[in-house]
Specification:
Length: about 325
């Protein structure tokens, strides 16, 4: 996990989604954000500081601002003095509300950044949690290729030289989209979601032995790439081994574990004459059927069992 500071809200990628603007407290922009959670400081403003999560990002909605507005000057002095006695990270005011002058004076004195957002509180918190959760998400970098095939995020794995990049190139030529080649950054967004993306340096590039590095977006167009994709299937490409028994029925649902999340997994043996891109397309479509409850292999197995039972009774 990378180090994240409050400055990210106005200079990092998050500025695009969150659309925050700094109003005061510029001196505190380099404070480190150690926790992804937020805090609504209503109880603290009312004088109850037990369990006050001062080291979280403070979100001021309409309730907090309405409470502040009805305070007298003397009450504000006491409330703000107590509130800013803690080492606050930053404060964000939704609905584009500008806090009063006294609050801003305390913020400047204590170097607490004050941000404003035009968004409503509920919508802002939803968006904010999504952005922060992705930043703080557990992640791992895999030597693999990630392709969007018929809307299914397919992670191609296998030994170097087995043909992952060449297979991806053929899939791109057939109208599918490249997410990342050679180095895939996988993030665990929640307990059931894995999101894959490429690095900023290698994004949209692919290595083809005999040609070198090519820019997929420039050659095939913007429709041939996407920045990230949910990983829904893992396919291991391996050289055909005549001594090995490969799955021919597909009755057993194998799983591949990434960051403790299990993903459907199949092995595709590679040898001359096999159309691997078409096989991967078929696997992706079959996975889509399984997601809606249709398992072709099991349905056929049930039909065969029923036929055997029927014939046995004759």
């Amino acid at each position: 996990m990378r180090k994240l500071t409050v400055r990210y809200f106005i200079e990092g990628e998050g500025r695009i989604d969150l659309q925050l603007r700094l109003y005061a407290g510029e001196g505190g922009l380099d404070k480190e954000i150690k926790y992804g959670e937020i805090n609504r400081p209503g109880l603290a403003l009312a004088g109850f500081f037990d369990y006050f999560a001062y080291d979280r990002i403070q979100i001021f909605g309409q309730g907090e601002t309405a409470f502040m507005n009805q305070l007298s000057y003397e009450q504000k002095m006491k409330t703000y003095s107590d509130f800013f006695s803690y080492d606050l990270l930053c404060c964000i005011f939704t609905h584009d509300y500008v806090p009063d002058k006294l609050f801003l004076e305390f913020a400047e004195k204590k170097n607490v950044p004050i941000f404003l957002s035009k968004r409503g509180t509920t919508r802002f918190i939803t968006l904010f949690v999504h952005v922060i959760d992705e930043i703080f998400a557990e992640q791992v970098t895999l030597h693999a290729t990630l392709v969007d095939v018929f809307g299914v995020g397919v992670l191609l794995t296998g030994k170097s030289g087995v043909g992952k990049s060449e297979t991806a190139l053929e899939l791109i030529e057939r109208g599918h989209r490249l997410v990342a080649d050679d180095m895939v950054i996988v993030k665990k967004i929640d307990e059931s979601l894995l999101m894959g993306a490429g690095s900023e340096i290698l994004k949209h590039h692919i290595e083809i032995r005999g040609i070198g590095i090519v820019n997929v977006r420039e050659i095939f167009g913007i429709r041939s790439v996407r920045n990230r994709k949910r990983i829904e299937m893992v396919i291991l490409l391996e050289e055909w081994d005549s001594a090995k028994e490969y799955d021919r029925l597909g009755l057993d649902d194998k799983k591949y574990s990434i960051l403790d999340i299990e993903v459907p997994y199949i092995t595709v043996p590679v040898r001359p004459g096999r159309n691997i891109p078409v096989i991967i397309e078929t696997a992706a479509l079959n996975q889509r059927l399984k997601k809606i409850g249709i398992n072709s292999a099991r349905e056929l197995d049930e039909k065969i069992k029923k036929w055997i039972m029927t014939e046995g009774q004759k």
